[in-house]
Every structure is written in structure tokens, then in C-alpha cells.
Fold each of these.
Amino acid sequence: MTDAREKLFALTGGWQTACAVLAASELDLFTEIVKRGSATADELARELELDLQGTTYLLAALSSLNLIEKTGGAFRVVDEYVPYLDSRSPETITPMLRHQANCLRNWAQLAWTVKSGVPIPSTCGVNDAFVEFQDFILAMDVIAKQIAPVMAQKLQDAGLLNFKRMLDLGGASGTYSFAFLEKNPNPDAKSVLFDRPAALEEAKIKAANSPFGDRLEYCPGDFYVDPYPTDVDFVWISAIIHQQGDDETEKMFRRSFEALRPGGRVGVRDVYINDNFTGPKPAAFFGLNMLVRRKDGKVYNAKETIALLTKVGFQNARLALPADDMSAVIVAEKP
Ligand SMILES: C[S@@+](CC[C@H](N)C(=O)[O-])C[C@H]1O[C@@H](n2cnc3c(N)ncnc32)[C@H](O)[C@@H]1O
């Protein structure tokens, strides 16, 4: 085989293993095995209401990947994976795996979307829409838990994290708010989480176990129609603008500007594509993700984002934290 031929097979070969692991996560198969210590295909099929042949084949595939191992007739999850695959564990990545399974249903029809220009009509997984939404919110937390503390430190080091009252627009379960309150030198700083009611329920569960929980305020609603909380000096817009086109983003920036006190600041975290529209890879692939998932989604370029902020009145808009992935942050100030 030539190098190029091998590379092409390597580039396209991961989808079957991904499907197997994601399906097991959607079905919560790993958790059920961990709960029991070890379990047979029969026991798992009965408990989770699965087809026995399907379960047997999936377990064989997962064994071949060395994620589970079989002794006698029973399977156990290999120790090193347990904290990440058991959905009850604080370190679990299960919500992100389930969210990826939901994305995969759209990605599977990428050619159709590129041809038609619209995402495929939504197809259902094994879980209902409410569980899909919860998984999405907790998937954001899986990622943000790693990024937010580092980002908070960088913003603090740059003198950009000294707010008194922050608005976390589409703040999900509050992961950034918690990290920013922790690093903010102002001990009375507060954060207002503005999100869908179901997302805020997840935030309340986290708040109950956080030393910063009593410094959160909740604003349930739809940020396209409901008024923004005012009297804030920092608006945090994290992983939001890519779900909408320029008009909505301009409106969002204008409404943020109006909500801010004079001298207040906006922070826009996202993944930005280069001027030539050729990368970096996380941005190029995120563009495809938006294409297949949302009719109005897009991948922004840092310059156009800065231009939109400037257009609504912000000053000194700049890429304060550059990054190739979804850790890039643009900041700007209201005069
Ligand atoms: C990609 S997540 C980002 C979550 C969080 N900001 C982060 O960076 O981890 C988008 C968030 O925006 C919220 N959201 C999307 N559309 C919304 C709307 N119209 N009104 C309120 N919240 C919305 C979603 O519920 C979700 O929590």
C-alpha cells in the first residue's frame, strides 16, 4: 500500500469504533456493568430492555477494543475507564459521548446537507428530547470543567476579571460563572445566569454543592426575546454566537452593550476560523458541525466578530486569548 492510500484509510476508519462506544454510552451499558461489578449479556439485555443478539454483538465489539473484559460469561469495565464511563461518577464524560451520538446522526448525512444546504430533519436516538437537552447541558460542563479554571486564571492575569456583577448569557449549568467567581478578587462579585429553565435546574444542583452557589442569580428565558438583566459590568458570551447568523449576533452584541454599565466589558469565547477559511482544524470541523446541526449556525472569523462588536459601540475589541480551538476569547469595553 502507498502512504497516501494508508493515510486515506486511517482518516476514514474511526466511525465504527466511535458508533460502538457512543451506542453503549447512550444505552448506559457501562454504568450497568459497573453497578453490578460484572454482568452477562443476558443480565444486561434484561435489565436495560435490549435485544439479546444486539447486546451480545455490542459487548463483543467493546471487548475487542479492550474497554471491557470477559471472564467466564461475565463482562467488567476495565478499571482505568470506569471513572469516565460510569455515568454516576463526578469525572464521567458520558453526557459528552451521548451528545456526540446525537451529533453523529446529523454528521452521517453530511453529503446530503452539503447538497441541500440544510440539516437533515431531526432523527431520534434512544432517549427523548428532554434527555438529549440535559445531556447537551452536561456535555458543555464536561468540556468547561477542564477549560474554565485555566481561562479564568488567564483572564485574571490579564486584569480582565474584576467584575462586580456578570451576565453569563447562555451560561448552561454555570461552569464558567463558578470558575470566574472563584478567581475574581472581589469577594462580593455575583453572576446572573441567563438560560432555558431546564439548563438552570442543572445549575441549581451544582450551586447547592458550591461555595459560590449563593452568589448566582437565575434568569430563565429565551435570550432572543426576553429582556437582558441590566446593571452588569461584564457580559460573558461563551460558545453562543456560532448558533446564529450575523444579524442575531449583532443584536446580541447591541443588547449586551445596552445592559452594561459604562466601562463594562464583554467577553466572547468561541472557535474562530482563519481569514483564508482553511483552518485551524477545530474551527473547520466545528463549521461542519454547525452546518449539520443548525440551520442558522456558522463558524465566525475573529476579524468579523471584532467588527460586529465595534459596530455596536464597543471599543478596543481584540483577541485577548488566541487559540486554535474553542478557547479563544475576544474582549471589548463599553466607553
Ligand atoms: C453551546 S452551549 C454553551 C454553554 C456555556 N456558555 C459554555 O460555554 O459551556 C449554549 C447554551 O445557550 C443556551 N441557549 C441557546 N439558545 C438559547 C436561548 N434562545 N435562550 C436562552 N438560552 C439559550 C443553551 O441552553 C446552552 O446552555
Note: The chain has two domains: 3-95, 135-333.
Amino acid sequence: MSIKATLSFTICFLYLGCIVLFSQALRSEPFYGNNSIQKELEKKRIHTRMEEQWVLPAHFQKDSKKIFDTERAQLETELGTIIDKKALFDDVLYPYVKAVHAKIISANPSLPLTQVIVVAEATPNAFSVGEGTLVVHTGLLAELENEAQLNFVLCHEIAHYVLQHTIKQLTGHIEHLQSKEFQNELKKIQASQYNQFDLFESLVQKMQFKSRYHNRLIERQADSLAYHLFINTDANPNQAQRLMQLFQDIDEPLKDSLLNFEPHFGCSKHPYKKSWEQQKKSVWASAVSKQNIARQSLRDSLKTHPDALLRMKWLDSLATNHQVKTLTTTASESLGIRRVSAIESVEAAYRDHDYDWAIYTALLHQKAYPEIGYFKDIVALCISELYTHSKNHTLSDVLAQTSLYYSPRYNQLLSLLNNFSLSDLLLVRECLEANTSSNSEYGLFAKYLYAQISGDSAASQEAKKKYLQQYPDGRFKQNFSNGN
Ligand SMILES: [Zn+2]
């Protein structure tokens, strides 16, 4: 049984919801570039630092040593996968996060060495690995209102590292697993003839409750040190509380209750059918086949979310010693960064073949940024991809089923996508055609795919020709078939 699974390395899951940074015009398409050298360097650096810093506690022997080594190796492997698949060393977000990090370091010169990584992932999250790497998701950058808020997030993660929270948590967890008390309880469960599973579940729950209480304490410690580091950078102190308010104000994932699918999946020629939203029965069987990191973290975020209010109160108590500056920042301060982060988060889902999640997040961002054609083009692309998978009987590989863990609106979208027949998908795609841009890289590729699935070889050749003329080294160059 996976007792280990109850331990989370990512000490804190942040959950926010709102607006972001700079006012200058930034790119309106995902970053396209080769990051492989940087990724390899980053993985090597992490390996060296883990060897140096994750040293086996002297009192650990045999079983404890084995668990410790396994956890360390597992964490390194997981991080390696995240870096390979999703680390983003781009021209906007990475330099921005690095610059904010550098400000903190220069204002607090005695801090130990830390490094930042940006990960393209829609979940609003940041975490400290425990050897000095601070990870920031694009989903978090898409929500922050200004630089000071990112500053506090980074200070908080630096504090976890300085206070050695990750390694202390792991050590404490292993000590508990090996303790007489725990081993005795486990023996009792093994000896009992009935309800072994229930008894084990309740033991795990007890552990989770304890660790949740412990997590609150370490969050408070991290916030205290973070606030000190943050004040040294001369940022507006109020922004730390404002950040907690962002977490607190979220009462649903990604604020999706106003999302209306009708205008996207229907048009006068092919009207939207309300019946598509009805959930089919007995469909959850294959749900497990498409669990992914994004959704897992979403659930974790929601679990820890209520702590924001407690953290805000704590920050209020720390703030009394400082002169409180007036809040003058507006959401538009970070607008450029927010937009690019939203684009990268959607792109990450698309590249993962996570088409329902890509559609869902693209529709949400389309509402916030109607001027960005990318969000419309990607929805059209995903519908074509779903058509191809449906035709090849591989739809369950790329389309999730509804779940109790998801928001009602996301479940509605999943029902909709699962209810579409092949011909529905083609008609829906035709409706989307009116919104697809005919000059952008994504728009042209979307047109090409649509022409392919609808069997229009003349249109397919035309889209391909236009794409290759405008984007001779484009990112979809390899995706064109030889014939047309
Ligand atoms: Zn934390």
C-alpha cells in the first residue's frame, strides 16, 4: 500500500485567481525555441545539489535509509520529467521571474544560493524543491497582479528552502513510518480479519490530519521569514496580504461559472444542442486512464486553499511593525506577463495531447483576452485532433471523463466532448472556422488540419503552401503529410 504517496514534496500549493504585469506589447503566441541544452544543464545542477544537500540523517539505518534513498531518487526522476516536458526557458517569462528573483537576492545578500525555473502548467502553483530550486508555474503567473506579488511568492519559497522544510518533512515522515506506534497499528490492521482496507484508510487519514496541522505551522514559519526578505526589497508590504486575498477570493476553479459553450460549439448553420451537455451513464470506467498531473495538482490546490485566510491574518500581525504603503498597483501592471503566461499554460496542455483541458483553459482565457487569436485557433485545432482520435478509436487516450473532483462547468464540457459524434465534431469544427485566423501560424495549421479531416485536398494544399511560405521554419513544419 502506498503510504509514501501521502507525502507531498511540494510543500505549498498556492491557489489564486485574477489578473498580471508589464504594459508593453509582448508576443501573442507560444514560445518556439530549442531549450534542450538548458534543460540538460538544469537537470545536472539539480542532481549535484541533491547529492550535496539531501544527506542521509546519521541515525537512519536499513529500512529508513532505503526509504530515504528511494524518495530522493524518485523526486529527482519526477523533476527530470517535469524539466524535460515543461520547463520554459523563453524570452519573456523566464527573464522576468529571474529578474524578480535577482532583486530579492541583492536585497538579502546573505541568502544561500537558489535558482528559479518556470514550468508551463495551468495550475496556479509554486514550490520549493528542497535543494535550492524554486519552481513557478505559468498558471500562477497568469493570475498575479504585479511584480510585488511574485516577489512574495519567491520569498516564501526561498524561506522553505532556508528553513529546510522539505528535508525535515521527509525525515519526520520516515521516522513516523518506522516508529513503534505506527508499526504496532499496522500490525493490528494486518492481524484483523475484517475491514483491513477501511482500517488502513483511517490510519492514513490520521496521518494526513497530523501533517496538515504541521503544514500550517511550517507555512507560518515560511511566511514570517518571507515577509522579512520581502520588506528588504522595498516592495509594497500590502501586496503580501493582497496575494492571500487572491487565494481566498477564489471560490471555484478558474472562475468558470460564466463560461457559456453555446457560442463556441454552434452556429446558425449547425445549431448547438443542449442535449450534448447531458452526462452519459457508466462512463467513468476509463477515467483513470487519463489522470494527469495538472488535475492532481488542481485537487491538491483546492484542499489547501482555505488556509489563505489564516495566512492573511498572520501577515497582518507581522505588518504592524512596518509603515503601510498605500496600494497603488492595478491589474494592468502585469497584463503582458499574464497574457503570455495564459498562452503558455494552454499550449502546455495542447502539447500534452490534453485536448479537453486545452479547450477549457483556452475558452476561459478567450473571455479575458478576446484580442488574442491564438485561443480561438487552438480550440479549432483541438476539435480536429479529437475528430482524428475518435476516428482512430483512440479517443479515451486524449479525452477525460467527468469526475466528482472537477468543477460543474468543466464536467459539462467533458460531457459535451464525449457526446459529440464524428459528424458533430466536423460540424462544430465548421462553425469554428469563422473565428479561425487565416494568417497566423496556428490559424493556418488549424485550417490545414480541418481541410484534411473534411477531405478537401485543394484547401489542404493551399493552407500548407501558405503556411510554408509564411513560416518556412515554423513549429508545425514536420506535421504536414507529404501528399497534401
Ligand atoms: Zn509554502
Note: The radius of gyration is 24 Å.
